[in-house]
Design goal:
With 159 residues, the chain is α+β, with helices and mostly antiparallel strands. The chain is built from five helices and eight strands, in the order βαααββββββααβ. InterPro entries: YcxB-like_C (IPR025588).
Length: 159
């Protein structure tokens, strides 16, 4: 089984990845919980400062990730052109122009999904992002090959 496809990394795709990565980490969850508790504190009779602080905390992270995704897109020349992926029995190969990199399935960290993307982590902090709009009808094939070559505990993909 082999699947080939091209993806174009956009600021929106980067933002989707950053939101997922941040809000599934301890710091993202703690920040959200603190912000929500401050807002709840306001509604339980605490001062308006609780509402302001909670709103700032809840809005800060998504806003900074939005800005960061735009900056990262503009700063990385690799995002200007499409990336070509080839998933084989051995692993995943990504190419752009003359440059080719590959990674074996056993070296993959985990695979997850968001409503907008499939994300294949190559390490705890690095990942390949596959926007669903770019995958189109190949989405099912990509999910199948990932699921066939990675242990089930590492795959958290919803169709």
């Amino acid at each position: 089984m082999e699947v080939e496809f091209d993806v174009k990394i956009t600021p929106g795709a980067l933002y989707d990845y950053m939101l997922f990565h941040t809000y599934t980490s301890a710091s993202g969850l703690i920040g959200s919980a603190v912000g929500a508790l401050l807002v709840v504190g306001f509604f339980m009779g605490a001062g308006v400062i609780f509402l302001i602080a909670g709103a700032v905390i809840l809005a800060y992270l998504p806003w900074t990730l939005f800005i960061k995704s735009r900056q990262q897109y503009l700063a990385n020349p690799a995002f200007k052109n499409s990336l070509h992926y080839k998933m084989t029995e051995e692993g995943v190969e990504v190419s752009q122009g003359e440059e080719v990199q590959s990674q074996k399935w056993e070296d993959m960290y985990k695979a997850v999904s968001t409503p907008r993307s499939l994300i294949l982590y190559t390490s705890p902090v690095n990942a390949s992002v596959f926007p669903r709009k770019d995958l189109g009808e190949k989405t099912v094939g990509v999910i199948r090959i990932i699921s066939a070559h990675m242990p089930p505990k590492k795959v958290k993909i919803r169709q």
